[in-house]
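In this supplementary section we document a worked example of the pipeline. Step one takes a protein sequence of length 145 as its only input; no multiple sequence alignment statistics are reported here. Step two produces a three-dimensional model, which step three serialises into structure tokens for compact storage. The input and output of this example are shown verbatim.
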Amino acid sequence: MSQTFAFSRIGYVYVPTTRIDESIAWYTENLDFKLMNKFQYRGSFIAVLHHPHQHSIAMLLIETGDKQPLEIMRNGKPFPIMAMNCPDIEYTHQLLTDKGLVVEDLQTLGAGGAKYFYFRDNQGNLLEAAWSKWDPQDEMKEDFV
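The serialised model returned by step three reads:
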């Protein structure tokens, strides 16, 4: 007997940008995304970006004339809109720092089973780089580069 679910996974996330081409370049050059498609819909452009992980969810950059960077307020402090997994978070932290991005200090949770740091994209959206010993292991997409 098979189980029927109304939902099975997150399909994609939306991230706003007022300069879609600059944001596409920023995400592909700094965060290992690959542009899969760019099209116009409802009066503005949408860019579909993927990570190399076989079953990663897509990120959609949504062009808007409304400059309003996203972050969640959590107990009076900014909290990121999404977290991206890093196989080697120390490497990622150093790489983004070397590229001149403003990144917060690397934080360790518990006995070292999880690590994270926050940073902002070129539009001011607050993001998280994260690693934990519980991250799913999966294949990488073929011919991704």
